[in-house]
Description:
Blueprint: E1 3-5, E2 11-13, H1 15-34, H2 37-41, H3 47-58, H4 62-77, H5 82-114, H6 117-126, H7 132-148, H8 153-168
Antiparallel strand pairs: 1-2
Helix pairs in contact: 1-3, 1-4, 3-4, 5-8, 7-8
Amino acid sequence: MNESSTGNDTVEISKSQRKREAHELLDLAKKLISMPPSRLADMPLDGDLRNEVDFARSIHSHGARKRQLMTVGKMLRQRDTTSLLQAVNDIDQKNRQANARHHHVETWRDLLIKGSDRDLAGLLGQSPGGNTQTLRQLIRNANRELKLGKPPSATRKLFKLLREMDEQQPLPPLPPDS
Length: 178
């Protein structure tokens, strides 16, 4: 156990645990400094901390930037960071979900290009928002481009169409035999 109790009911945290917490806050400082300004504006930062993060973003020298990173990390250790950690984790979770949807659409695109009419029928049966004729034509064109070694413009158009369908209504799970 990392915590021990002394005779006067104070809890002592081990040195290793304090170091782990300090490293977590340093990672948080790195994320804050590397965030785009639009996302950073939404973070629950007080004025002093926001100024230090902005200053760190403006530094280009590696050594000076590292020192400023340590300053931001020290400031974070002196504050309650639960709401800030929650906000950063929420952004990370949204990014993971967006990446998963993107990969799902890519997988459907690849399945339709390499697959059969049965796969297309399965997609259209579970996702009624698609234009059958356009999808079939894009699949044919993508196969033709693949055979001729041409740039994959139809493949990109197919991906864009599937992404639009996914935004209207999420694409169904992939067939089990794919």
